[in-house]
Amino acid sequence: MTTEQHILACIDGSAVTESVCNYAAWYASRLDLPVALLHVSDIPASSRRDLSGAIGVNSRQFLLEELTQLDEQRAKVVNSYSNALVEDAKSHINSDFDVEVSVYQRRGKLLPAIEHFKEKNRAIIMGRRGEDHKNDRINIGSQIETVARASHIPILICSEKFATPTSYMIAFDASKTAIKATQMAAKSPLLKGIQGHIVMIGNHDDSSKESLAAAVEHLTSSGYMIEAHHLPDSDAVDTLLTFQVENDIDIIVVGAYGRSKWRQLFLGSTTTEIIASTLSPVILVR
């Protein structure tokens, strides 16, 4: 028996939650799959152990009992908040989209909760912290890095208000990761019927040109509307984002990071710079 897949939407009640819900519902409707809303509560450990050695013998038991009651009250508040959040998110999706929605609540860390549904996850939708528009770089958070490194399925990262995508751009550099990204995109109905652009910057050697042509042929033969653009060598991120703005492109598709365990290798990569420099939704493809 095959396990029914779903689109996993990771929500936390922040300002990007509505966007996450909407993009998850859009993604699910394109693939004719249900949405699974996931909220993970990371309740801090009690401070009882730290205090027990510092208080007097006579008052120790009384204070520990009070701390226990506080822990229980905090857990109840967190549970109530989680219940309200997932129900509100479900109602929001049901009011605008005709997709099935299920809700899941877990305690602990986000990645283990996501991996609990590993066999069901077709794609993951996550929010990016984009409220502070004053900064040139957007705070993408460590959660995205952690999940992206561990996942081998597409991850859509969003922050701004949802708008139905009508165009997309694939950032292509002729690398193995980029080639795999186009191959995976060609297997999915997500972007079919939407105008696409595949953009390569520099890489004017014959091998790269052949890779670009092969990628276009693969996507075209798979039923995609795609145009190829081979731009002069320049700063990759600036050129890609300028191209996006000038061509009114809604979604950026990029190959995700390599498997290096060293966090610093993530920072400063082209993929990270794109995510941190645009408010548009980005799909990471492994």
Account of the protein in words:
- The protein has 286 residues and is α/β, with parallel strands linked by helices.
- The protein has ten helices and ten strands.
- Helix 6 runs parallel beside helix 7.
The tally of helices reads: 10
Roughly how many Å is the radius of gyration?
Answer: 22 Å
Overall mean confidence score, pLDDT? 85
Task: Give the oligomer, counting copies of the same chain as homo and different chains as hetero.
Answer: single chain
Strand order of the largest sheet: 3-2-1-4-5-10-9-6-7-8
Instruction: Describe the global form.
Output: elongated
List the main descriptive attributes of the protein structure presented here.
single chain, 286 residues, alpha/beta
List the helices and strands and how they pair.
Layout lengths: L5 E5 L6 H15 L3 E7 L6 H5 L4 H40 L4 E7 L2 H7 L4 E7 L13 H10 L4 E4 L8 E5 L4 H12 L7 E7 L4 H16 L3 E7 L4 H11 L4 E5 L7 H4 L3 H8 L4 E4 L1
Parallel strand pairs: 1-2, 1-4, 2-3, 4-5, 6-7, 6-9, 7-8, 9-10
Antiparallel strand pairs: 5-10
Helix pairs in contact: 1-3, 6-7, 8-10
Please provide a brief summary of the model.
Helices cover 45% and strands 20% of the residues. It is α/β, with parallel strands linked by helices.
